Amino acid sequence: MSKQVKQLDRVIIRFAGDSGDGMQLTGDRFTQESAVFGNDLVTLPNFPAEIRAPQGTLPGVSSFQVHFADHDILTAGDAPDVLVAMNPAALRANLGDLPKGATIIVDTHDFTPRNLTKAGYDANPLDQLGDANDPLGEFSVQPVDLTGMTVEAVKEFGLSRKDAARAKNMFALGLLSWMYGRPTDPTITFLEKRFAKVADIRDANITAFKAGWNFGETTETFVVQYEIKPAPMAPGTYRNITGNLALSYGLIAGGVQSGLPVFLGSYPITPASDILHELSKHKAFGVTTLQAEDEIAGIGAAIGASFSGSLGVTTTSGPGIALKSEAIGLAVMTELPLVVVDVQRGGPSTGLPTKTEQADLLQAMFGRNGEAPVPIVAPQSPGDCFDAALEACRIAITYRTPVMLLSDGYLANGSEPWRIPEVDDLPAIDPRFATERNKTVVAKDGTESEEYWPYLRDEETLARPWAIPGTAGLEHRIGGIEKADGTGNISYDPANHDLMVRTRQAKVDRIAESLPPLEVDDPSGRAKVLVIGWGSTYGPIGAGVRRVRKAGFNVAQVHLRHLNPFPKDLGEILERYDKVLVPEMNLGQLSLLLRGRYLVDAIGYNQVNGMPIKAAALAEAIGGLVADAEGVTVDLTPASISTEAAQ
């Protein structure tokens, strides 16, 4: 039987099953195969908050979406072209996201009356295929007994049926690897290493993977194999990387480029825990990690490390920032370098631990008592987490201040190809430790003496000198209640307090002088609508803007990495455009700041459902503004847009 080979420019695949079915591993392996092949890609893992939700239920469904293409893409895709569903709950939970004509590969083994009831089905939808009332009639459904074939394929290894069935995810991976021409050697090598100590499990998984591939090659069920060519990329060495991993490497690079040991004081919290896990592996780079008993202890230890001459770092999510707020204020007052990483998640308090959101911006700006301003930096993509972390380290060390680094769950768990930078291209960061006394003091009798004052400031940055405790002759106080200008002695003087409050704000404002001009993406120079965003909305905004431009209309885009202070040219840029749209995964926090600072009529596009913004819906909103601004009709139907602009 001859198989057809069909060329595609991009595909979105979602693997979905019970949280014990290994969907995250399956998706990750398919992603690694695609990265090795050379496709551009973006991923979206999505898993339940419960450690082990009831098996076969809708709350227990775990999924992994990967969008890969032969061209540059920006998002994990709005809707899957292919859904691999391992049970009824996975089918039901994801059906609403599928476009008409999507392919569904479904494991028939678990479509039992009990599992159908758990998923809320009154009848088996697979029994109704082709009927007049077929609930799956608008999709291309391929029922396959993945579990049964897996158990049969691995029976030679003597595993129990339960253990044998666990390899069904590798069978599914093998089948999809065949369908899309993925290289298989990386996965086989991975399985050999992962299960090296358990020979039967290792061999069973490899056999299941190969069996899935062979099934695709020989079955009449799948007669088309798809080819997505590698994407053109700039020369260099690439690897697939998640946001949390890139952020960890950025913190290590910050330590290396400054010559400082890195100290992480952290309490585990989703979705930031992977940073603690990763940094604990890098003692060779001078990294010390402390898993503290709580959030407050974690940041307290990090501040102590900064006081002693290390680069202090603490990692958490929104609930942890709330607990750390007083200690962040202390770091502002003592003016010590500190990087505070907030990997944002949905909802207040415990909220939605495994879902993404951008709702901590105002907390980062104002979530401390008193006037305690901190710089805020936000990465725009998983790979950009490296550069944003390095920038946060630069600001913290150069300006002697805590810095908030706002990532989020979408960036943290998602991945993309990342070009590994050359070490020589990374910026050097000079901690400029104080080594000698800096103040000449004249006594009443006219005699002069040299003293060390810890709050004499650099004229350019307003940063104070940083003396490592124990340095002879540089003993000093750092305040704590409030400090006298220059000496650091405790002061209750109202005028001094006013001076210190204004100085701390002025120091943050000075950071804007070191920032490069904003890059405004306005190819025609005739756009009347500007779309401005921050953080992980970069991908959906870019994809939405592409759609509008491909339809023949003008729109400008600018993205903010620095949220406090804002870049000094931002106000002038906002004034150029008639309408300003601000997409955010919150109810309008950046919009509020832009309105208050620049008196611009910022229009919010707000989504808070725990998922990334969809490019198609955002494009409609952009198109509506363009239509109003230019007095035209904007057509964004698929026929008016090339397929490569879609995501």
UniProtKB/TrEMBL annotation:
Residue ranges of every copy of the Pyruvate/ketoisovalerate oxidoreductase catalytic domain listed in the record: 20-212
Q: Which UniProt keywords apply?
A: Oxidoreductase
Q: One GO molecular function term?
A: oxidoreductase activity, acting on the aldehyde or oxo group of donors
The protein's matches in InterPro entries, at most eight in alphabetical order, are given as: 2-oxoacid/accept_OxRdtase_asu, PFOR_II, Pyruvate:ferred/Flavod_OxRd, Pyrv/ketoisovalerate_OxRed_cat, Pyrv_Fd/Flavodoxin_OxRdtase_N, Pyrv_flavodox_OxRed_cen, THDP-binding, Transketo_C/PFOR_II
Lineage top rank: taxon = Bacteria
Q: Which PANTHER family does this one have?
A: 2-OXOGLUTARATE OXIDOREDUCTASE SUBUNIT KORA, PYRUVATE-FLAVODOXIN OXIDOREDUCTASE-RELATED
Protein name as catalogued: 2-oxoacid:acceptor oxidoreductase subunit alpha
Source species: Nocardioides agri
